[in-house]
Each structure stands twice: as structure tokens, then as C-alpha cells.
Write a structure and sequence with these properties.
Elements (H helix, E strand, L loop, with lengths): L4 H12 L10 H10 L5 H13 L5 H5 L3 H8 L5 H19 L3 H5 L3 H9 L6 H11 L9 H9 L9 H9 L6 H18 L26
This protein binds a DNA duplex (13 and 12 nucleotides) through α3, α6, α9, α10 and α12.
DNA sequence: CACCAGGCAAGTA
DNA sequence: TACTTGCATGGT
């Protein structure tokens, strides 16, 4: 059984409703969270962000004023804290030195150009850049993550060997360029991935259970 | 105890 | 270009 991007979206939205992503309260929080969540559970990231919030450090210049060692200590619960402290600093240096610490100024840059600028920062890869653009900036750049890949590959809608940009193009070329839609779609994919499509799949009760690939069985060789 | 979680960059051949 | 490895905490 084959399904269109729109049909999959409608299934997920009917089952789960709006997800209200990103789970951060301000654009700057989203920015920080996008780095901290790299290969890490959101529960751990929340602890790190709460450490910053407790000390009123959820704004660019305040974080940039910290030493790397101080920042490492605050974000320790998020894991990889040494490398992430440097990655955050790289991002903050870019934001402060190039845009005066203003997210509004940064997001005034045209999407393709800003995306290129973000990717030049050491520690910002495709997914982190797209998360910042879409969820902090409200710009229509589709986010591909491990769940996006797993859910779509297991149903045979993309190959397991599809790379980041093949998957991104699959969504961006098949949907209207609408940030609200990209936002909701990705959030719904994470939702269904968490509930049904982890390493050990639980297809019982999954909204996509009747959209299994031809041959019936879910492929799990990822 | 082992395994997993919303990546990325650096090193190797 | 195409692999492989290091990075680290906290939950199950």
C-alpha cells in the first residue's frame, strides 16, 4: 500500500492533533536546545536549559559572557557537555558578532543564505541548522531527523540508504513551502516515532499500521 | 548489566 | 568518496 505525503500527514494529525513544537518557550531557547539535543534525549536537555533559566541565562549576551568552563558546568546534564559548550559558543559568537545578538536581525536574512551561514559554524550540521531555521525562525526549511528517516524507510517510502538531502527534498518538493506545515509534520513524525517506531517497533495501534509496505512486514534493518 | 536518545566533526584508507 | 570513532549524561 502506498500513500502520499499529504495522506500520511492527515493520518497523523487526525490521530494526534497539533503538537505545539518546538517544546521551548522562546526563539533563543529553541536555538540553544537545537544544539543540546544532538543525539540526546530531550529530558536531559530540559535539565540543562533549566540550569540556564535558573540563573537568568536565557539570552545571547549572558550566555556568551560565560567562560567555556562555566558553560560546561551548566549544560552537563545534556551530555557531550565539553563539545556542546564549544558548539554553543561558536553559535553565540556568530549571533553576537554578526547580528549584534539579535535573533530578529539574524532571521531577517534570506533563508538559503542564512542556512549556508549556519552550516559554516563548527558544530552546526544540517539538522541543527534546519531546526533553528524552522522552529526558532519560523522559516520553511524541513527538518530531517532519525525518526523521519526510520518511519519513512520502514514503510518503504524512502530507502534506508537515503541521505539527509534526499529525504529533505522528498518532503520539500512534495509539500507547499509552509513553515507551519513543516513544523507540524516533523513534530508528528517524532510523536509517532517515539510511540511506535523505536528500535523495537510497536505497530499495534499505530496510526500508520495499515500503510505497511507491499509484502506486509515492516522493514527494520536500519 | 546493556542499550538507547530529535548529530556532528575528525580521522583513516 | 566512504567508512569508523569519540563525545557523556540519565532513563529503562
Amino acid at each position: 500500500m502506498t500513500a502520499t505525503l499529504g495522506e500520511v500527514y492527515d493520518r497523523l494529525f487526525a490521530a494526534y492533533g497539533p503538537q505545539h513544537w518546538w517544546p521551548g518557550q522562546s526563539p533563543f531557547e529553541v536555538l540553544i536546545g537545537a544544539v543540546l539535543v544532538q543525539n540526546t534525549s530531550w529530558e536531559n536537555v530540559k535539565k540543562a536549559i533549566d540550569n540556564l533559566r535558573r540563573e537568568n541565562l536565557l539570552e545571547p549576551r549572558a550566555v556568551y559572557a560565560l567562560s567555556v568552563e562555566e558553560l560546561e558546568e551548566k549544560i552537563r546534564p545534556a551530555g557531550y557537555f565539553r563539545i556542546k559548550a564549544r558548539r554553543l559558543r561558536n553559535l553565540l559568537a556568530f549571533l553576537v558578532e554578526r547580528y549584534g545578538g539579535s535573533l530578529d536581525a539574524m532571521f531577517r536574512t534570506a533563508l538559503p543564505e542564512l542556512r549556508e551561514q549556519l552550516l559554516e559554524i563548527n558544530g552546526i550540521g544540517p539538522e541543527t541548522a534546519d531546526s533553528i531555521l524552522l522552529y526558532a525562525g519560523g522559516l520553511p526549511s524541513f527538518v530531517v531527523d532519525a525518526y523521519t528517516h526510520r518511519v519513512f524507510a520502514r514503510h518503504g517510502w524512502i530507502g534506508f540508504d537515503a541521505d539527509y538531502y534526499q529525504i529533505k527534498d522528498h518532503f520539500e518538493s512534495g509539500l507547499p513551502q509552509d513553515a507551519r506545515l513543516f513544523n507540524e509534520y516533523h513534530a508528528l513524525l517524532v510523536r509517532v516515532g517515539k510511540e511506535h517506531c523505536r528500535k523495537t517497533p510497536r505497530c499495534q495501534g499505530c496510526p500508520l499500521a495499515d500503510l505497511l509496505p507491499p509484502g506486509g512486514a515492516l522493514r527494520t534493518d536500519d
